[in-house]
Amino acid sequence: MIGVYLSGTGNTQHCVELLCKTIDPDAKVIPIEDSSAVTEIHAADEIVLGYPTQFSNVPFMVRDFIQSHSVLWRGKKVFCLVTMGAFSGDGAGCAARLLRKAGAQILGGMHIKMPDSVCDSKLLKKTVEQNQQIIAEADKKIKAAAKDILHGKYPQDGLSVSAHIAGLFGQRLWFSEKTKGYSDRLKISQACTGCGICTKICPMHNLELKHGKAVPHGKCTMCYRCISCCPKQAITLLGNMVQEQTRFEKFSR
């Protein structure tokens, strides 16, 4: 088993690592943007694919990766792990359908509530203590799932017809424009000092420094990694002002 994930603020990385390492302490877990991801998936029989749900959909970077490497998934056994803030719909099912088309066998799916990571919105914000409790409950759910998986019983979150309908009509139809491709809505204010942190951590290499300022290139996967890490809070996406920068480490102490 290997774990492959897209994680902006650390939520999904934590969940994939905990699940995989609980099942197999020697399991390898890597970010999807890692240059070795294709090689590792090719060599593995069973893969945990983790990502945050976006408006009840799969981040376009993950969809693009699956479809661009469709031959890679043929005959693979895949478990979809989805992190969410409040509503997931059929977050696992969205990737599962793409993977099935590519010839993969879907073992199951799992939806895990984690601290909200949308830094430029006031919605869903909670205290540190509340977020710590969310993580504690998530860890408990993951460990219980790992125990079941070791006995051959895989969770089936987000894979049913009812989940598909909930995801489609609950969010995906109304917000389809936001998730149909990479976003060109990333905004960088004059507060940017050109430190270069965002250019180094973006999984899409979407940012570069020009004349001492960060400049986006319209290929944002909405992971919120750069927004969470900008020391000047100069980057926004869905909102216009950073409300609270969010990293998993902040709540895991």
Question: What do these coordinates show?
Answer:
By secondary structure, the chain is an alpha/beta fold. It folds into two domains: 2-177, Rossmann fold (3-Layer(aba) Sandwich); 181-240 and 247-251, Alpha-Beta Plaits. Helices cover 37% and strands 17% of the residues. The chain has helices at 11-23, 37-43, 60-68, 91-101, 128-150, 161-172, 176-179, 197-201, 225-229, 248-251; strands at residues 2-5, 28-31, 46-52, 77-84, 105-113, 187-188, 207-210, 213-216, 235-236. The strands form three sheets. A five-stranded parallel beta sheet has the order 2-1-3-4-5, with helices on both faces. Strand 7 (207-210) and strand 8 (213-216) form a beta hairpin.
How is this structure best summarized?
The chain has about 250 residues and is an alpha/beta fold. It folds into 2 domains: about 1-175, Rossmann fold (3-Layer(aba) Sandwich); about 180-240 and about 245-250, Alpha-Beta Plaits (2-Layer Sandwich), CATH 3.30.70.20.
List the helices and strands and how they pair.
Layout: E1 2-5, H1 11-23, E2 28-31, H2 37-43, E3 46-52, H3 60-68, E4 77-84, H4 91-101, E5 105-113, H5 128-150, H6 161-172, H7 176-179, E6 187-188, H8 197-201, E7 207-210, E8 213-216, H9 225-229, E9 235-236, H10 248-251
Parallel strand pairs: 1-2, 1-3, 3-4, 4-5
Antiparallel strand pairs: 6-9, 7-8
| Strand order, sheet with most strands | 2-1-3-4-5
Class by alpha and beta content: alpha/beta
The CATH superfamily of the largest domain is identified as Flavodoxin domain
Beta-strand content bin: 15-25%
Q: How are helices and strands ordered from N to C?
A: EHEHEHEHEHHHEHEEHEH
Mean pLDDT: 96
Report the uncertain regions.
Answer: none
The coarse overall form would be globular
Level-1 CATH class name of the largest domain: Alpha Beta
Distance between the termini: 28 Å
